[in-house]
Amino acid sequence: QVQLLESGGGLVQAGGSLRLSCAASGRTFSGYNMGWYRQAPGKEREFVARISWSGSRTYSVEGRFTISRDNAKRTVYLQMNSLKPEDTAIYYCNAVPAVGGPGYWGQGTQVTVSS
Predict the structure, then answer these.
(1) Cβ atoms of 51 and 106 closer than 8 Å
(2) Residue 86: phi, psi to the nearest 5?
(3) Are 78 and 70 a contacting pair, CB within 8 Å?
(4) What is the pLDDT of residue 14?
(5) What's the pLDDT at 105?
(6) In angstroms, what is the C-alpha Rg of the chain?
(7) What is the pLDDT of residue 91?
(8) What is the C-alpha separation between 23 and 5, in angstroms, rounded?
(9) Cα separations (Å) of 89 from 72, 100, 101, 109?
(10) What's the CA gap between 54 and 3, in Å, rounded?
(11) How far is CA 64 from CA 15, 60, 67, in A?
(12) How far is CA 97 from CA 33, 39, 51, 83, in A?
């Protein structure tokens, strides 16, 4: 079992920045692929970024967002710059074992970008 707790969301003006954090507890963090997803009102949850257990990164939002992880702190981060109103959503942290198996979700943190 893995528990995920997101933090760092809030209200920011367009062009601003936020850094989201996701703290994990439970099983070995370093063996998990970690990701961020978001869900805007009335829309389906969508992929934002992923960092593998080995550190490789993939993004759906190129250039403005950066995902990183600190295995010693059991935390994954999402640095979001040049935020736009369309980035407004609940952001969810996701953990999937690198060897396969069920994934886990956090409760989400709200990000609101005002124009």
Answers:
(1) no
(2) -70, -5
(3) no
(4) 98
(5) 97
(6) 13
(7) 98
(8) 5
(9) 29, 28, 27, 8
(10) 21
(11) 10, 10, 10
(12) 6, 23, 12, 30
Q: What is the pLDDT of residue 54?
A: 95
44 burial via Cβ count (<10 Å: 0-12, 13-18, 19+) = exposed
CA–CA separation, 81 and 84 (whole Å): 9
Residues 6+ apart with CB under 8 A from 54: none
- What residues form DSSP beta bridges with 35? 50, 94
Token pair 């981060």 is found at 77
Residues of the chain short of pLDDT 50, as ranges, are none
Question: In this predicted model, what pLDDT tens digit does every residue of 78-105 receive, in sequence order?
Answer: 999 999 999 999 999 999 999 988 999 9
The DSSP line for the chain is: -EEEEEE--EEEETT--EEEEEEEEES-GGGEEEEEEEE-TTS--EEEEEE-TT--EEESSTTTEEEEEETTTTEEEEEE-S--GGG-EEEEEEEEETT----EE---EEEEEE-
State which amino acid sits at residue 40: A
